[in-house]
Amino acid sequence: MRNTKAFKEAVAQTLAELARKGVTFAPATVEDAIERQITAVSEQLGIQVRSAWRYFDAEAAAARLAGSRASYEESSRNRSVGQAPMPPVGNPELALVLASVPDSLAQTGGDLYAAFVNVAVNAWMAGHIHGEDGCTGCGDRGPAGHDWEARMRIITEAQPDIAKWFDRDVWTAAVNDTGFTVTRR
Questions:
Q1: Angle at 80 between CA 76 and CA 81, to 5 degrees
Q2: Alpha-carbon gap, residue 23 to 5, rounded angstroms
Q3: Residue 62 and residue 137: Cα distance in Å, rounded?
Q4: 101-108, long-range: CB within 8 Å, 24+ apart, which pairs?
Q5: Mean pLDDT along residues 122-136
């Protein structure tokens, strides 16, 4: 279904309608939603997929997706669900996580997935450690133990030029120095 002209046009039209509404979705998300919709119409009406396209309306699909997004955001606000707090710019642990990306790309031969997993795990651990400083069951954290301030001093002493990792151009140059780059298709 995804290789048909009708499908590609439906995705393009839906994305355009979403843009008019000021809502952004990843194209893959829109593709999945359209595929589910067309498959459901085909099955419910007992018709072939190619015949189900006559029931597709890009504006209605965009309205449903936008409504779904708004509903999710509203329900998340009601439950106090949101973005995790960002560490302050200049945070030594965040600098180490940022600095690990070029190294990880080089070590994995440009495997973006492996580099991303490495960064995600390190970021999760940094957040866990930050939030669990009072947890005596979290194990040994080295010479600083559970003292977050002491850990930040130790990291800063080991990596004195932390500020450079908060400069997008320096970070991008470091990634490019590995011989890899991330470009949009």
A1: 50
A2: 24
A3: 48
A4: 101/171, 101/174, 101/175, 102/171, 102/174, 102/175, 102/177, 102/178, 103/178, 105/175, 105/178, 105/180, 106/178, 106/179, 106/180
A5: 55
Closest CA to 112 of 163, 166, 182: 182
pLDDT digits (tens, 9 = 90+) for 13-57: 999 999 998 888 888 889 999 999 999 999 999 999 999 999 999
Burial class (CB in 10 A: 0-12, 13-18, 19+), 1: middle
The structure tokens listed for 26 are: 């990843």
Helix (H) or strand (E) holding 100: helix 92-107
Q: What's the confidence (pLDDT) of residue 133?
A: 47
pLDDT tens per residue, range 34-44: 999 999 999 99
